[in-house]
Write a structure and sequence with these properties.
263 residues; 2-enoyl-CoA Hydratase, Chain A, domain 1; six-stranded mixed beta sheet; alpha/beta; 9 strands; 49% helix
Length: 263
């Protein structure tokens, strides 16, 4: 994928795609163009069978400063329906990333505020530089973190959300790790090594099974199925009957490398 103005997308020979926010001069703040391009890029990566893992990264010293000031000014000038359309575009972009049927690893090299925390919340794993700082700053502007809210609350829980949504306080990577927003906090010069450790682990797993496992976690955590026992039993039967499942069991029994393992 190419031709984006606010993003870079690169995929290596292993099927590891890096989706990079590329507005460093604006601290990677999200405007309408970036929101649209993120949704388009995520949909393309979801459909690309060659892609096995996606790393969400950013150029420059800041991961994402949230909403671009010009975009927010434009939103404020719109009528109510226009405001709702803009908010919906942001919400749908986050949903496409959240629903991505590939592991999504956040590489957070710097600060993230507002919508940047929303991007972190839809990642499966977040690796952050230990000196990065975070805040949900919307209430300082008379706003609320509404469109990112469902994802952030799921990630950190109601108790932590009540505090951080309301008071807009900054918190560091250690605190972000304690509340579950960040999976691993490390020195900046160890960031790429930590990301690679997570990526390599995914490449040892069957891609179809990884997608199914991710969907299972979301369904169970969000209580979207009426009978979790029957649902999970059916899903396991599906995997046993899948080409991946049959190939994996056969390879294990015959002590052969898994067919999806890196060559």
């Amino acid at each position: 994928m190419s031709g984006y103005n606010t993003l870079m997308v690169e995929t290596d020979a292993r099927g590891v795609a890096t989706l990079t926010l590329d507005r460093p001069e604006k601290h990677n703040a999200m405007n309408a163009g970036m929101i649209d391009e993120l949704a388009d890029a995520a949909a393309g990566l979801a459909a690309d069978e060659a892609v096995r893992v996606v790393v969400l990264a950013a150029s420059g010293p800041t991961f994402c400063a949230g909403g671009d000031l010009s975009w927010m000014r434009d939103q404020a000038a719109k009528d109510r329906q226009g405001k709702i359309c803009g908010a919906t575009a942001l919400a749908l972009m986050l949903k496409v990333l959240d629903d991505l049927p590939k592991p999504l690893v956040g590489r957070v090299q710097g600060n993230a505020f507002g919508g940047g925390i929303g991007l972190m919340a839809v990642c499966d794993i977040v690796i952050a530089a230990e000196k990065a700082e975070f805040a949900l700053t919307e209430t300082r502007l008379g706003l609320i973190p509404a469109t990112i809210g469902p994802y952030v609350v799921r990630r950190i829980g109601e108790g932590h959300a009540r505090r951080l949504f309301l008071n807009a306080r900054r918190f560091d990577a250690a605190a972000a790790h304690r509340i579950g927003l960040v999976s691993v906090a490390c020195p900046a010069d160890e960031l790429d090594t930590a990301v690679e450790e997570e990526v390599s682990a995914f490449l040892d797993c069957a891609p179809g099974a990884v997608a199914s496992a991710k969907r299972l976690v979301q369904d169970l955590a969000r209580q979207t199925v009426d009978d979790p026992l029957a649902h999970s039993a059916g899903l396991l039967a599906d995997r046993w009957e899948s080409a991946e499942g049959r190939a994996g069991i056969e390879a294990f029994l015959n002590r052969r490398p898994m067919p999806w393992a890196p060559k």
